[in-house]
């Protein structure tokens, strides 16, 4: 599919009944908050997701760097299929059991080094399979945070690697990413046999984009073109929510 046709698919819902939606959370479904714990779902989002989940016969998943417990807190009372910690956690069905493999011991060592070396103003979020260092409140710390995270990771780089997202440096377990989460869900009903569509807003979503494109699906970038240029794009989370609302209405 050429670029103009990919962009046109944003306004053409004629085949949407066959889609499987994979949605990032922060910066895609919801606006990025000053601190992760302050993030909230805006009014109207949860009913739209509920309606789409029903219209797509369950083929809607949230694929996030957050833990699934945190995703559930923000989207309550929904407990959608999806993946947390970039794919370290997996929930195959709505409200189903969350599969959580034990993190490698190296992540504990890395977390201890990260916590011990971060400058004041940086916020460290230890999720188990990943450690995120946020500098949203102090963007001038970007280079310092990135350098110290790299040093903390160095002794165990065979076990983990770093991803750089919007105002965050995140160390995560090797062999786990959003693309593998998409592949795992696409192997199962109700996702199996559908056309995957992934919406994401930064480089941490690129593995998910690659996975859906390999399957003939669509990757929709949210925000600027600092990553994944070309293809369909929505301006910001508000545009995403309006687009999802239009999609729900079309499917209904």
Question: Can you describe what's shown?
Answer:
With 252 residues, the protein is an alpha/beta fold. It folds into two domains: 3-101 and 176-251, Rossmann fold, CATH 3.40.50.1000; 105-173, Trehalose-6-phosphate phosphatase related protein, domain 2 (Alpha-Beta Plaits). The protein contains eight helices and twelve strands. It has an eight-stranded mixed β-sheet with strand order 5-4-3-2-1-10-11-12, sandwiched between helices. The chain has a four-stranded antiparallel β-sheet with strand order 6-7-9-8, with helices on one face.
Key traits:
2 domains, 4-stranded antiparallel β-sheet, Alpha-Beta Plaits, Rossmann fold, alpha/beta, 8-stranded mixed β-sheet
Briefly note the structural class of the backbone.
alpha/beta
CATH topology of the largest domain: Rossmann fold
Total strand count, please? 12
Please state roughly what percent of the residues sit in beta strands, choosing from under 5%, 5-15%, 15-25%, 25-35%, 35-45% or over 45%. 15-25%
Q: For this structure, what is the CATH class of the largest domain?
A: Alpha Beta
User: Which residues sit in consecutive blocks of at least 5 with pLDDT less than 50?
Assistant: none
Alpha carbon gap, first and last residue: 27 Å
**How many DSSP H or I helices?**
8
Strand order of the largest sheet: 5-4-3-2-1-10-11-12
